[in-house]
Design brief:
This protein is mainly beta and 159 residues long. It is built from two helices and eight strands; from the N terminus they run E-E-E-E-E-E-E-E-H-H. Strands 1-2-3-4-5-6-7-8 form an eight-stranded antiparallel beta barrel.
Length: 159
């Protein structure tokens, strides 16, 4: 008898993605990483090459001078099945609000990214985030921020 874990065929969430633009929200390059059993993401750069923006809408005045790159904006995401991640929160630099997030990873590695104001996630917006390879950054001369500074930004999360 062969016993195989259901997680044996799971995609790996860690890695690089290109977000989908929407209204005034620009497409950017983000990286997911796993830390202490949960998943987190931070933005690396805007895909159009525009500079990082200040976090002017942050409800915490002390954080309004930080930029939207190199800072964890998605946190506490948990894997609940081989291709599903739930119970996470995502901070929106464009309006200073925090939303609930649910992610389903497709077989090709892309993400169906659903955000909602409410934990139940009945009403919200879906986005497609495309999985990209590390060579994309080299080809476009994009440098990742210092990961130690990314980890330090975890202390700035307001649950």
């Amino acid at each position: 008898m062969i016993c195989v874990s259901i997680f044996a065929y799971a995609q790996k969430l860690e890695g690089l993605y290109q977000t989908e633009s929407f209204l005034y929200i620009q497409s950017s390059l983000v990286e997911f990483f796993k830390f202490q059993g949960k998943y987190y993401a931070y933005a690396i750069a805007n895909t159009n090459g525009s500079p990082a923006q200040k976090d002017t809408h942050n409800p915490n005045p002390a954080l309004r001078n930080r930029t939207d790159k190199g800072v964890v904006f998605l946190y506490d995401l948990k894997q609940t099945s081989p291709s599903t991640y739930e119970q996470g929160r995502v901070y929106n630099f464009y309006d200073g609000r925090t939303y609930y997030v649910h992610i389903h990873q497709k077989k090709n590695g892309d993400l169906s990214f659903f955000v909602s104001l409410y934990q139940g996630g009945i009403i919200g917006k879906s986005f497609l985030w495309k999985h990209i390879n590390e060579d994309y950054l080299q080809k476009h001369h994009i440098t990742k921020p210092d990961f130690n500074n990314v980890l330090k930004s975890l202390s700035q999360i307001n649950p």
